[in-house]
Design a protein that fits this description.
By secondary structure, the protein is an alpha/beta fold. The protein contains eleven helices and 14 strands. 47% of the residues are buried. The protein binds pyridoxal-5'-phosphate (PLP). Pyridoxal-5'-phosphate binds next to helix 3.
């Protein structure tokens, strides 16, 4: 089976080899306080930094999921106010977490399937401390332009900027000088089993958490930024972490680095172009996102005149598993993940099978 599902997704092809090696080397039994574990953490952090061009100054922090990362970011960087660009389920979740934590978040909304008109957004209030973006809104397939996010960051130099790149990493190209907090989980673009979240944190965002803590604000318990960093500096974690996932991430980051980030981005573009080209010229399927510049390169949402359930089950019989539209679009849409694991020839194959539905 080849999975084009938005997550969990197709495993990176080197995973079976690394799993066998992990078994042979007792990765799942070694104590998390041992030098052997510290070596794994160090290697994973270094491989990620090299592959993604992350500055030496930034911390690589491990949490349980991207959803946890959202909660930690809210807890650790604001007294009260955050601003959230919301255009679907995942950006809304980030906002809702701030509500649940009794903060006073502000929502800047766009309808599902649309981006934001950044030039018309009024200046953000002075007391907003954190601005949150979802680079690719996985529920609808809208991708924000990185230039727009970076220019918001430049216009608001005193605010912490956070970005969810769960469904766009490692394709997304980040300016780590402009964006303080970048987070993802590993079961999407990295092609790993689920169960690990990663926060890439700037020194400034850690300082903010320390300052809040010093003033007596609640920044959480075992996963505060200061605690995460204190342990990360020793290549350790406070709790018993998902050692296997940290190990696999380091290995896959290295494998991807040997392919090269530019080649990965280039192939992602190529596969996205192929699929959008097909979707734009047939009688059955069409891209859900009308505005070309908002169309995600990594999560492609498809309007279909034929029942998604029927299409998905027919494709499954042919060894291809694609995703269904996110609620409330489950009866009229499909979602196709275009992650680094799937090859150009897999995308060709999928397009061919999709074209068989057209009478
Ligand atoms: C999948 C997804 C999440 C949630 O990730 P978890 O690892 O399940 O917490 C958050 N944001 C986006 C954009 C996603 O696609």
């Amino acid at each position: 089976m080849i999975f084009f599902t938005p997550g969990p997704s197709q495993l990176f092809p080197t995973i079976p080899k690394h799993l066998r090696e992990a078994m042979r080397n007792d990765i799942m039994s070694i104590p998390h306080r041992s030098d052997a574990f510290r070596e794994i953490y160090k290697e994973t952090a270094e491989n990620l930094k090299k592959f993604l061009g992350i500055p030496e100054t930034h911390s690589i922090l491990f949490v349980a999921s991207a959803t946890e990362a959202m909660e930690r970011i809210i807890e650790n960087t604001i007294k009260k106010k955050s601003a959230h660009f919301v255009n679907g389920v995942f950006s809304e979740r980030f906002f809702q977490i701030a509500v649940d934590l009794k903060k006073e978040p502000q929502e800047i909304k766009a309808p599902p399937g649309k981006g934001f008109n950044f030039s018309e957004i009024p200046a953000l209030q002075k007391d907003i401390e954190l601005v949150c973006f979802t680079h690719c809104e996985t529920s609808t397939g809208v991708m924000l332009a990185m230039e727009d996010i970076e220019s918001m960051a430049t216009q608001n130099p005193e605010k912490i900027i956070a970005i969810d790149v769960v469904s766009s990493f490692p394709y997304a190209k980040i300016d780590y000088n402009a964006i303080d907090l970048v987070f993802f989980s590993v079961q999407k673009g990295f092609g790993l089993p689920a169960g690990l979240g990663v926060i890439i944190a700037s020194p400034r965002s850690i300082e903010k958490a320390r300052a809040l803590q010093k003033k007596g604000f609640n920044v959480g318990s075992y996963h505060t930024f200061p605690t995460l960093v204190e342990y990360a500096e020793k290549y350790m974690t406070n709790e018993t972490p998902n050692v296997l996932a940290i190990y696999l991430l380091g290995k896959v980051a290295k494998d991807m680095d040997s392919i090269g980030i530019e080649k990965i981005r280039h192939d992602t573009e190529k596969k996205a172009d192929m699929l959008y080209e097909f979707l734009s010229h047939n009688s059955l399927f069409s891209p859900f996102i009308e505005e070309k510049k908002c169309r995600s390169r990594t999560i492609i949402t498809v309007k279909t005149k034929k029942s998604p359930v029927e299409i998905i089950s027919t494709l499954k019989q042919k060894g291809l598993w694609i995703g269904v539209g996110y609620k409330p679009f489950e009866n009229e849409q499909l979602r196709i993940a275009n992650f680094p694991t799937t090859r150009v020839k897999d995308m060709k194959n999928l397009i061919e099978k999709l074209s068989n539905f057209i009478a």
